[in-house]
Amino acid sequence: MVDPVQVTSELHQMLSDVQDDRPSIARAIVATMVRVNGDVRFVDGDTVIRVECPVLEATWLLRRLVDGIYDRPLDMSVVPADDRALRYVLRVRARGGDLARMVGALDRRGRRVQGLVPAVVAGGPLVAGGVWRAALLAAGRVVLAHGVARLQVDCPTMPVAMALVGAARSLGVRAMARELATSHMVVVSDAASVDTLLSVLGARSASEALRQWRHRTAHPAAITISLQAVNAERATVAGHASAAQIRWALQVLGDRTPEHLQTIGRLRVDYPSLSLSELGRLVEPPLNKDTVAGRLRRLREHATQLLDPESQL
Q: Where are the domains positioned within the chain?
């Protein structure tokens, strides 16, 4: 029987040992760790950042990267988390708001970032690897659920979770964002995606341990998982087909697209793999899946009517 706590510990150690400090990756790691498991405050004109890490090596990694990115005097300290075993806290303090912008907590206009900064989200597969390495280091773990080993990252908000889903997609990995009553998370469940992600991140030993455990374990849940995989594949195909239709509708309507329809249409095009419920959570205020479906339908109908005025809305 695989021990998820032990595998998680080994995974954190492997990810901490990866040596890749290219600027784009370093910024992605810092921005993700701060957003996933950190807190940014402004005290007496200073920026104060606090980030929790599961292993000391990860904390020192973050300290080194922050120091390299900011390149100015910093007040930094690493201490054990209060009343929590095997957790460490990096505290960073610097004058002004430049530090908050450099670590991705504020955008260029000084507003708090809800998910991850655009430069990280649009960074491609290279940066996406740094994003997931940081997310797993900050708040990730291996979980056994119904006999299946999966990767899980706890997130502070749904926009952060959706940013991780997008980064996973850049790596060819299928991840799902989930919203519970009091928390948000991203889960990588299917075996192929778990293997791909861990291999890309340089944690091949953890990947091999989970692969061997799957080969040794026969569980009735495998049938259910197979059905879930088929259903997920069907949903993905349907989502991409819908996105293609909406892309066509937006091109046909152009500037004549109603704003509320354009918003949900752009989200459908940008996130073709998300369910209607997940798309609705990205809108402010959030929409239920029926409202999302209705707006997408009206968007297609408007485009059809524009090309064929005799058609009925």
A: 4-204, 224-307
Percent of the chain clearing pLDDT 70 (strictly above): 86
Give residue for tokens 């239920």: 288
Q: How many CB atoms lie within 10 A of CB 152?
A: 19
- pLDDT tens per residue across span 107-149: 777 778 888 888 888 888 889 999 999 999 999 988 887 667 8
What number does CATH give the domain 4-204? 3.10.28.10
Task: Report how far apart, in Å, the C-alpha atoms of 147 and of each of 113, 173, 194, 233 are.
Answer: 37, 21, 15, 21
Tally of residues, the chain: 313
Q: Would you state the structure tokens that stand for residue 167, as one six-digit string?
A: 């980064």
> Minimal CA–CA distance to 119: which of 109, 107, 135?
107
Q: Tell me the pLDDT tens digit for each residue of 164-190.
A: 998 998 888 899 988 877 788 999 988
Residue type at 179 in one-letter notation: E
User: For every residue of the chain, which 3-state class applies, written as one string?
Assistant: CCCHHHHHHHHHHHHHHCCCCCHHHHHHHHHHHHHHHEEEEEECCEEEEEEEECCHHHHHHHHHHHHHHHCCCCEEEEEECCCCCCCEEEEEEEECCHHHHHCCCECCCCCECCCCCHHHHCCHHHHHHHHHHHHHHHHEEEEEECCEEEEEEEECCHHHHHHHHHHHHHCCCCCEEEECCCCEEEEECCHHHHHHHHHHCCCHHHHHHHHHHHHHCCCCHHHHHHHHHHHHHHHHHHHHHHHHHHHHHHHHHHHHCCHHHHHHHHHHHHCCCCCHHHHHHCCCCCCCHHHHHHHHHHHHHHHHHHHCCCCCC
Residue closest to 28 by CA, chosen among 113, 126, 102, 120? 120
Per-residue pLDDT at 223: 43
Confidence of residue 294 (pLDDT cuts 50, 70, 90): very high
